Structure to design on (917 residues):
């Protein structure tokens, strides 16, 4: 599978990643299949897919946080010259939180209710550096301010339940930034928030990207949300990358039937609100996949040849999609 | 054989034969025991385990194994009756409290809570002192002690049932009163109560033995595990085996019923509200 | 939060009163036996009547209760039927002994529970879990008096390391005191740990599935720090309330084991009262034991309320 993405200077390069569900030693289902991605220096890359597409599992596999019975069966993930999948748990733990950090989803439940915010934000630093308590505290305040939390000194001493949803998300962002990682994985950071707060967080991420050296992997199911944020976007369906392009191109020139359907189903103000386009059917379970196109059951353009594995078509530049249909 | 999940059900499978053996031992003591438990063999007093006496003899020349087997009768019977008393009394109180709700519920449950906070042995010991030390009174005393526990359980389950829709449906079609309780509430109370009964049984056996151990239960020469352990204590230096067999039997009995209770709880789990 | 604390304190009083009533009734259920025990079985009916009148046993139960309760509140537990000695001072002398035994046993139980329970919870459904869970069930099923007998046989008689019983106050000789208390504490504590280990395990398993645990893992934390720093604190809260209930069972066990090890505490005083049908003694000892349980439950309730910082919201 040819790798997709910009040439040279990549922070992360995933090739042919397959992740499977195992039961009693043998494979029972396919969760992620033949995924290849690149994330370049200071890029914000979006990974879009609905629930069950495998996007979160793929991200978790990079830092060794796969649940039991779910294993990487194929592929490599080159990060700074090493294949992450070959590292021992101890070695991964050194990278986790330091070189690759995570902004988790569902901020309220991602925070430990009995620890103060300051302690939780400063924890990656206390784990991975030798800095003194007061030095860490100073850095915590600095990053809390960076994510635009007012009165950081007071806030750091508070508990999670005393923060609003948006503030909790910002605090988690500060936590991810604090160790100045090369890659930040933002796992649906806006999902539990309401729309106005979502916009704020997106704006914050844009600012932060400009002010830091980190690359971002932004995982979401909301294509509209990432339209202005991400440099490049990968669209994922049922464990496979079905399309990848520059952020703007995904919207102006979607190629894959799934991407098109996704864009079509985003309600737009000037359209008739009574006609909400949905994609018929449901995503297939990991146990039901065969080697053909995984979307064909729900695709309005499906043909007979879709039962064979579809090729990656190039549509100019870096824009590729996994489909038989020429368009 | 290979399809059994040993990790999960291994212990349960082990406990079942033990339970069966226990019930058989108490039901068929005269068939299983090699000697008469009261027979005094003056030639072999305080003898250690041998081919003639597998677990040795006690200070009066009686065979320890036989006495242990016969003693199971007391433990099993007391256990069964005490649990029956507790279960019946507790269910009546618990379901009544939940059914009527309001002040009745409040008063009854406060009383149950207070009774529940007494250490069981304390109450048992006091009741036995007053009622007189006999096996019958032991059953009564332990049964009474179990009532609050069953009451709380049945009340909780009844309340859960009351919130279910099928109860509303039954009330809508005119079912009420005793019929409601009998047909709708009680069948659902059954499951959790059975689980609790298994665990309560093992605790009843334990309590009865503790009472006998203190001299407040079955009186010698009648053999009960508790009083055998107590007697054995007096001879622990010269004849440690006197305490061993009854103690081991008691331990295995309690252990098996605890495992049984756990297993039942796991099996009935989806239907139980935790 | 102050409101919650006040409510708990207010319900405590009535609870104690009702408990004392229950005990009073339980002790006095069968009239007449007290006098027979004190005077002997050959006592004449007149002697019995005189005895009962002397001790106010022929009055209505309610009156007896009120008089007893009134005196008890002021620390006067009456006089022993056996030897006309004031009960109060005896109780006072024995209380610290029982508290020490119960305390030591409880520490052993909680120590075992937290360490083994956390291990079992962390290695959920793998070998350490299966082993520890089985051991916990075994521990909880052992009759404490039989375990005590075995321990005495092994450590006192066979190995000769520890005494078979008896008590030396720690003010006199700390080492001897501990040597005498260690076996009964182990017998009590190990049995109680059975349930507690499993409660801790369940609590930890539940906490480990929480979202914030994954967040902590994503920071690259070591497993040890994960359990100790994050999971345990959250798991302890539900554990505390159950351990208070278990403490009740433990205190019950004290009644038996103080007899086995010849320890002069409140537990053995209960038995003394029973054997001699000495009602003032029995009542006083039973009441004190019950109070120990009730007070501990109250304290744990209050502690749990304070510890959980989500209650801090009420303070702000």
């Amino acid at each position: 599978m040819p790798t997709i993405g910009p040439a040279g200077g990549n922070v992360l390069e995933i090739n042919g990643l397959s992740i499977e569900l195992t039961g009693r030693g043998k494979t029972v289902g396919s969760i992620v299949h033949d995924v290849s991605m690149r994330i370049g220096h200071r890029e914000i890359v979006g990974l879009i897919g609905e629930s069950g597409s495998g996007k979160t599992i793929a991200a978790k596999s990079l830092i060794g946080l796969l649940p039991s019975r779910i294993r990487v069966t194929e592929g490599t993930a080159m990060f700074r010259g090493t294949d992450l999948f070959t590292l021992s748990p101890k070695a991964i733990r050194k990278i986790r939180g330091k070189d690759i950090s995570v902004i988790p989803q569902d901020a309220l439940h991602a925070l430990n209710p009995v620890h103060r915010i300051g302690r939780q934000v400063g924890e990656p630093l206390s784990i991975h550096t030798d800095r003194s308590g007061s030095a860490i505290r100073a850095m915590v305040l600095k990053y809390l301010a960076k994510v635009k939390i007012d009165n950081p000194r007071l806030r750091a001493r508070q508990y999670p339940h005393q923060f609003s949803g948006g503030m909790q998300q910002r605090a988690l962002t500060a936590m991810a930034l604090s160790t100045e990682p090369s890659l930040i994985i933002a796992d649906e950071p806006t999902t539990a928030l309401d729309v106005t707060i979502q916009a704020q967080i997106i704006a914050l991420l844009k600012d932060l990207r400009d002010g830091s050296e980190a690359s971002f992997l932004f995982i979401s199911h909301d294509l509209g949300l990432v339209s202005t944020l991400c440099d490049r976007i990968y669209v994922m369906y049922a464990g496979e990358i079905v399309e990848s392009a520059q952020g703007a191109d995904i919207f102006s020139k979607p190629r894959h039937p799934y991407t098109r359907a996704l864009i079509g189903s985003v309600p737009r103000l000037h359209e008739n609100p009574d006609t909400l386009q949905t994609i018929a059917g449901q995503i297939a379970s990991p146990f039901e996949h065969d080697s053909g196109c995984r979307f064909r059951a729900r695709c309005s353009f499906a043909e007979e040849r879709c039962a064979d594995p579809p090729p990656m078509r190039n549509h100019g530049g870096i824009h590729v999609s996994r489909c038989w249909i020429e368009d | 054989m290979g399809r059994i999940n040993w990790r999960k059900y291994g212990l349960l499978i082990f406990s079942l034969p033990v339970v069966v053996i226990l019930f058989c031992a108490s039901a068929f003591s005269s068939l299983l025991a090699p000697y008469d438990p009261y027979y005094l063999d003056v030639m072999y007093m305080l003898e250690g385990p041998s081919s003639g006496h597998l677990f040795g003899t006690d200070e009066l020349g009686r065979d320890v194994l036989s006495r242990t087997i016969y003693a199971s009768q007391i433990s099993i019977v007391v256990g069964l009756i005490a649990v029956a008393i507790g279960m019946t009394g507790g269910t009546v109180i618990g379901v009544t409290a939940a059914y009527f709700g309001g002040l009745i519920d409040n008063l009854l449950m406060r009383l149950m809570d207070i009774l529940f906070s007494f250490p069981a042995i304390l109450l048992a010991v006091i009741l036995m002192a007053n009622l007189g030390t006999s096996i019958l009174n032991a059953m009564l005393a332990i049964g009474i002690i179990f009532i609050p526990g069953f009451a709380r359980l049945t009340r909780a389950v009844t309340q859960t049932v009351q919130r279910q829709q099928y109860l509303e449906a039954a009330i809508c079609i005119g079912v009420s009163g005793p019929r409601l309780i009998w047909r709708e509430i009680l069948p659902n109370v059954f499951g959790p109560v059975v689980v609790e009964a298994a665990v309560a049984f093992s605790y009843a056996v334990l309590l009865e033995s503790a009472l006998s151990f203190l001299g407040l239960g079955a009186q010698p020469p009648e053999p009960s595990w508790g009083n055998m352990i107590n007697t054995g204590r007096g001879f622990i230096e010269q004849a440690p085996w006197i305490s061993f067999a009854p103690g081991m039997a008691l331990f295995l009995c309690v252990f098996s019923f605890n495992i049984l209770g756990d297993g039942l709880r796991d099996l009935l789990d989806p239907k139980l509200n935790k | 939060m102050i409101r919650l604390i006040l409510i708990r304190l207010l319900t405590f009083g009535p609870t104690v009163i009702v408990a004392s009533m229950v005990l009073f009734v339980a002790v006095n259920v069968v009239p007449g036996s007290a006098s027979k025990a004190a005077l002997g079985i050959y006592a004449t009916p007149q002697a019995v009547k005189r005895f009962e009148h002397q001790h106010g046993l022929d009055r209505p139960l309610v009156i007896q209760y009120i008089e007893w309760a009134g005196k008890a509140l002021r620390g006067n537990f009456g006089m022993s039927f056996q030897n006309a000695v004031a009960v109060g001072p005896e109780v006072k002398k024995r209380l610290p002994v029982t508290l020490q035994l119960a305390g030591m046993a409880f520490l052993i139980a909680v120590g075992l529970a937290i360490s083994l329970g956390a291990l079992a919870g962390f290695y959920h459904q793998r070998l350490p879990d299966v082993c520890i869970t089985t051991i916990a069930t075994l521990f909880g099923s052992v009759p404490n008096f039989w375990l005590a007998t075995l321990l005495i046989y092994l450590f006192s008689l066979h190995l000769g390391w520890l005494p078979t019983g008896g008590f030396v106050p720690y003010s006199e000789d700390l080492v001897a005191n501990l040597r005498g208390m260690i076996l009964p504490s182990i017998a009590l504590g190990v049995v109680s740990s059975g349930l507690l280990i499993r409660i801790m395990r369940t609590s930890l398993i539940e906490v480990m599935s929480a979202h914030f645990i994954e967040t902590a893992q994503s920071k690259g934390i070591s497993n040890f720090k994960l359990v100790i720093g994050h999971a345990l604190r959250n798991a302890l809260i539900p554990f505390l309330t159950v351990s208070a209930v278990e403490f009740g069972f433990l205190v019950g066990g004290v009644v038996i084991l103080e007899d086995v090890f010849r320890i002069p505490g409140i537990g053995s005083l209960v038995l003394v009262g029973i054997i001699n049908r000495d009602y003032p003694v029995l009542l006083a000892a039973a009441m004190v034991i019950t109070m120990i349980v009730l007070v501990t439950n109250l304290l744990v309730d209050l502690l749990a309320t304070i510890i959980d910082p989500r209650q801090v919201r009420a303070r702000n």
Chain A is about 30% helix and 25% strand. The longest helix of chain A spans residues 195-211. Chains A and B do not touch (no CB pair under 8 Å). The longest strand of chain A covers residues 26-40.
